[in-house]
Amino acid sequence: MTEAIRIEGVSKRFGNLQALDKISLSVPHGSFFGLLGPNGAGKTTLIGILGGLVRADSGNASILGHNVMGQNLEYKRRVGIVPQELLYDPFFTVREALIFQSKYFGLHNNGKHVDYLLEKLHLQDKAKINTRRLSGGMKRRLMIAQALVHSPPVIVLDEPTAGVDINLRLTLWDFIRELRADGRTIILTTHYLEEAEELCDEIALMRDGRIVAQDKTTHLLANFEENIRVRLKITGSVPKTLPPHERQGDYAIFSLPDCSHINALLNTVHNSGGTITDMEVSRADLEDVFIAMMKAH
Ligand SMILES: Nc1ncnc2c1ncn2[C@@H]1O[C@H](COP(=O)(O)OP(=O)(O)OP(=O)(O)O)[C@@H](O)[C@H]1O
């Protein structure tokens, strides 16, 4: 598989703050890639470098083989970036803004594609409204449409669902999945980890300007050592020799490597005269992996 994005040893300082520290990352073309990390990890700075908005101090980055750091702006045709902040031009209607954006790319007859984007992003009935009059969620949809006017093969979405209601979030993901099925590469940052777990086939976890893990989502979950979570409510005599656990009110929470350890746990409770009055078993999710990784680094 070719690489949609290649980042090699990219560093960026803001004054005393090392926002990015020799980041290297490879995003396969055609993948749905999640870039996750706590506030301030450096995700937006890295995306800014890919979009030519932030100048790296050192390192290299390319999109589909086109360097993003030199004078050649050819890479801009290959990528559509949806930034986190709501940026819009208050002088245009929604449709005018998209037609205008198309012209930046030399697309002078882009009306059909603009109408397609308006429909897919549920903005048709807002087409003739001034962008100032859009709600926050609608402005975000307009920004997504703006990033797609030139049908870029690589799409970078920095928290696209922040401030978007649940119905729209679902339709938005359907649309993004369609784009992906069409062969595009999607790079996503989000703080909704269940969203990342469902959508992304590969994930990089960032912290303090560094990548602390990068793997297929299924591998990250399968290799997590505390894969099974058992929540028990024990009444009667609570055994003194319980394996390590956390307390949550009346419940004891156990993290086990796999299901084969459940029997031994239940036997320990039973043999000491304890009674289990409630039990819940769940698999670790991306949030558990994320929290454990952040603690470890
Ligand atoms: N222009 C700037 N000047 C100074 N510091 C900056 C600038 N841009 C970002 N930073 C700092 O760099 C660090 C990384 O910020 P960045 O926005 O890349 O993080 P992030 O992972 O996108 O966070 P969030 O999840 O909150 O969006 C932060 O400590 C931030 O305060």
Automatic annotation (TrEMBL):
Q: List the protein's name.
A: ABC transporter ATP-binding protein
InterPro entries, per database record: AAA+_ATPase, ABC_transporter-like_ATP-bd, ABC_transporter-like_CS, ABC_transporter_ATP-binding, P-loop_NTPase
- Keyword Nucleotide-binding among UniProt keywords: yes
Keyword annotations: ATP-binding, Nodulation, Nucleotide-binding, Transport
Q: Which SMART domains match?
A: AAA
Which Pfam family is an annotated match for this chain, by its short name? ABC_tran
Q: Where is the ABC transporter domain?
A: 5-233
Report the GO molecular function annotations: ATP binding
Database matches in Gene3D superfamilies: P-loop containing nucleotide triphosphate hydrolases
Family under the similarity heading: Belongs to the ABC transporter superfamily.
